[in-house]
Amino acid sequence: MSETIKKFMYLNRRAPYGTIYAWESLEVVLIGAAFDQDVSLAFIGDGVYQLLEGQDTSESGMKNFSTTYKALGDYDVTKLYVEKESLEERGLTLDDLMPLTWEDEDDDWAEKDSIRLVSRDELADVLDDQDIVYSF
Amino acid sequence: MAIEANGKVFETDEEGYLVTLADWEPVVAEEMAKEDDLELTDEHWDIINFLREYYEEYQIAPAVRVLTKAVGKKLGKEKGNSKYLYGLFPYGPGKQACRFAGLPKPTGCI
Fold first, then answer.
1. Nearest Cβ partner for A74 among B59, B69, B110
2. Which residues form the active site (chain B) (predicted)?
């Protein structure tokens, strides 16, 4: 269908439930995944809270969509960059985040980690390498 | 719009999808199928139940490509292809089966 594959980056910068941005981003990612492009997500600033393990929205009346991130692997979205400094600034480590994996069809369905912990400098290089960056 | 069955009224949206997911009962799928001139078999129910479990786990209705792959993995390769799924759900396994299962229209359904 498409002749050239482009690199799409979805940059997630906000906490999950105060605004609609995180959910909107996730929906756009899932819809965009149908187009067979090279898709990455990055989580910086309060955006890292989107991946926090054990989210509970029952008091807020909002739908808890955190488990939807676990479906990203099914949609062949396998590159989730998390900025190390953003985690540290919030007193978080990788262990506070949901384990997110994808299954590699070409490697006997081996389960592989989707989350890639990167420094601010490394993420800058990743962003530099993209064709299109959507900021949410 | 609405579906009436078992003495209850199940509200649906303009595309025929159930408005309140929690209202769903098997009879909803049966009534919807009847309107589409389909009789539900065990093979249909395998897919409908699979979709409901998928939604329960991930909070989304899967795109048809994702559904196909996942069905193949769970129910066997001979079922994980669009020919089989379209055979069961001629209006599209994503849209029609999700509707029967009481789910919203699939995310990524274009």
1. B69
2. 109 (cysteine persulfide intermediate)
pLDDT digits (tens, 9 = 90+) for B1-19: 788 888 889 999 988 999 9
Interface test with A, best of B77, B107, B109, B110 (most A CBs within 10 A): B107
- Of the options 3.40.1260.10, 1.10.8.80, 3.30.310.10, 3.50.50.60, the CATH number for the domain spanning A7-135: 3.40.1260.10
Per-residue pLDDT of B94-108, as tens digits, reads 889 999 999 988 765
Average pLDDT over residues A6-26: 94
Q: pLDDT tens for residues A45-97?
A: 999 999 999 999 998 888 899 999 999 998 999 999 999 999 999 999 999 99
Q: Length of chain A, please?
A: 136
With CA atoms as reference, the chain A residue closest to B109 would be A31
Q: Residue A74 contacts by C-beta under 8 Å, 6 or more apart in sequence?
A: A102, B62, B66, B69, B70
| Separation between Cα atoms, residue B50 and residue B104, nearest integer Å | 15
Q: What's this model's pTM, rounded to 2 decimal places?
A: 0.85
- Alpha-carbon dihedral angle through residues A88, A89, A95, A99, given to the nearest 10 degrees: -110
